[in-house]
Amino acid sequence: MTNAELLEGRGIDLKHKTRGTIKTVCPSCSEQRRDRKDPCLSVDIDEGLFNCHHCDFKGRVFEKKQKEYVKPVPRLEKLRSGLINWFENNRGISNNTLLRFGITEANEWMPQVETEVPVICFNYLRDGKLVNIKFRGQKKAFKMAKDAELIFYNLDAIQNEKTAIIVEGEIDCLSLHESGIYNSVSVPNGASKGNSQLEYLNNCWTQFEGITKIILWTDADEPGYSLREELARRLGKDRCYRVSMVEGCKDANDVLLKFGKEKVKHCIESALAWPLEGVITMDDMYEDVCNYYENGYPGGVDLNIVGMEDHIQLMPGQLTTITGIPGSGKSEWADYMMANIAKLHGWSWAVCSFENQPAAFHVTKLAEKITGRSFAKRISPSCRMDADDFAYGISIVDKFFHFININEVEVSLDGILEKAKELVQRKGIKGLLIDPWNYIEHHIPKGYTETQYISESLTKIKSFAIRHGVHVFLIAHPIKIQKDKATGKYEVPTLYSISGSAHFFNKTDNGICVWRDFKENTVEVHVQKVRYSWLGKVGMAAYSYNVNTRQYHFIA
Q1: Do 338 and 360 sit in the same domain of this protein?
Q2: What residues does 42 pair with on adjacent strands?
Q3: At a CB cut-off of 8 Å and minimum separation 6, what does 360 contact?
Q4: Do 96 and 233 share a structural domain?
Q5: Number of H helices, E strands in the chain
Q6: For residue range 226-284, what is the model confidence (pLDDT) as tens digits?
Q7: H/E/C letters for each residue in 194-212?
Q8: Model confidence over 192-226: pLDDT tens digits?
Q9: How far apart are CA 92 and CA 234, in angstroms?
Q10: d(CA 185, CA 155)
Q11: CB 512 within 8 A of CB 525
């Protein structure tokens, strides 16, 4: 049985989709809640994963196995004259270009109309061999070949090239070829807001390693801009250029139809380099400023943690410093935040943890945060995760967490950031955990004070975060904290308490202190700094701590 069939067998409505990710109603809790149509269940059909954000309905329909791709059956029927005329008259694409790209047609069952209909076949080749097919029916009904590998369309066109152009659709790729630009590829599945899982880039990474200039021409809409940003982040903004869309046009084919081939060429030739360093002009910022005016400041992702809703949201490009006295649970709280953000928002994380070694131990802790169950029997065997919980937790860690081997990389700050940069490009990480600061091999240059060195290092971390669109969690220990003479309890540290420099407060975007009352078995999470007011505010939330499951429960 397929994943889709197995998921539907659990009562999950996949809305006729057979692959990809969707949000749908939860068959477990929707009937008990007032809003019965709330799409609270996240489903990854390809991985067989499902997770409700309201109840405990979660799991996986199969154990992970090596992904095997299926080669599609070639569709060799030549295009009818009516379709050739449609391309010519409606899209400005000549028959010569259609022949060059080997576009064919077929009759194919399409899920959008639930019947077999005539379709155009965009054939995806690698090294001249058929790898995938996109079928396009009327009214923009699309599907990819079942279980085939996702790659860029027209991939062979950038082989041995130093410059490549990436567009959002196959017809845009045809439009560039029609205009005399032959080194373009297209993403296979368009753009959708918030989707940063670029499987096709992972599958084609080596084809881009020798390319020194990459021009990105996505659609002039919010999903298109989001895709452009994610491609640039993954491929490296130092070699990326962006095309400014012609007013009144939404994509490359629009430009071809309204203004002709020379205008298409001009758009490519006038592509702007990504602003990296030095002076940023209004031309560089204008799109972003207009977007802020129309849609507001960019929001962060919420933690999905009760009690934190008003206090903090996280954005890529920021640094969050976490402190607390030894044994207070700094690392546990960081794991909790990472696990929630991975499940809810699909962020992948690079983990450089000196505290949680070997990495296999850390996997078990993250699985606990993901499932809400204990990995080992510990005090109460009834709290232990069952086989389904185990499979679900491990699969989420496998999909979203990448562990830096501290025994095989240089554990200086430069070494960690260099490995994290590689993981941005190869795995698309959006988060980095460094735990803790004092375990890094610090080589303070001769003549530097510790304060100077820390200031420079934090600037380096912040620059890395901005340049690569990564949110960094930095865990740092405070100096020895005094006990309150009246209560006998340790005082709550602040970011200023971190050993070495006040820059740990000054240069971070967000600051969190985790403080644990061992007598009462409660944990206080103090948000002590939030740089941007629209992303939260300082304050504290208190939680009881279940030692059986290592879970936090908000104290109202």
Answers
A1: yes
A2: 23, 51
A3: none
A4: no
A5: 15, 22
A6: 899 999 999 998 899 999 889 899 999 999 999 999 999 999 999 988 876 566 778 77
A7: CCCCCHHHHHCHHHHCCCC
A8: 655 567 889 989 998 998 899 999 999 888 888 88
A9: 32
A10: 6
A11: yes
Cβ 257 vs Cβ 92: under 8 Å: yes
Structure tokens at 257: 């139809």
Long-range interactions of 300-303: CB distance < 8 A, separation 24+:
300/535, 300/536, 301/341, 301/344, 301/345, 301/347, 302/344, 303/337, 303/340, 303/341
How far apart CA 366 and CA 306 sit, in angstroms, is 19
How far is Cα of residue 474 from the mean position of the Cα atoms in its chain?
20
Pick from 550, 395, 309: nearest CA to 51:
395
Q: Are 474 and 362 in the same domain?
A: yes
Q: Are strands 240-242 and 431-435 parallel, antiparallel or unpaired?
A: unpaired
The vertex-438 CA angle with 432 and 444, nearest 5°, equals: 105
Is the pTM higher than 0.70? The answer reads: yes
- Strand duo 539-546 + 551-554: pairing: antiparallel
Token pair of 524 as six digits: 């206080």
Q: In whole angstroms, give the CA distance from residue 394 to residue 556.
A: 32
d(CA 38, CA 463): 39
The whole domain housing 223 covers 158-296
State the angle between helix axes of 261-269 and 170-178 in degrees (0 to 180), rounded to the nearest 10.
Answer: 100
Nearest alpha-carbon partner for 220 in 189, 251, 262, 174: 251
User: Same domain for 326 and 435?
Assistant: yes
Which residue type sits at 382? Answer: S
Q: Which residue has the tokens 């491990």?
A: 394
Residue with tokens 């008259």: 89
Residue 202 region by backbone torsions, left for phi larger than 0, else alpha for psi between -120 and 50, else beta: alpha
Do 383 and 475 belong to one domain? Answer: yes
* CA-wise closest residue to 224 among 182, 258, 190, 256: 190
Q: What is the CA radius of gyration of the chain?
A: 26
Domain-embedded: residue 307: no
The DSSP line for 284-349 is HHHHHHHHHHHH-SPP-B----TT-TTTB-B-TT-EEEEE-STTS-HHHHHHHHHHHHHHHH---E
Residue 485, classified by CB atoms within 10 Å of its CB into exposed (0-12), middle (13-18) or buried (19+), is exposed
Q: Are residues 89 and 169 in the same domain?
A: no
pLDDT one-digit tens code per residue, 503-513: 999 999 999 99
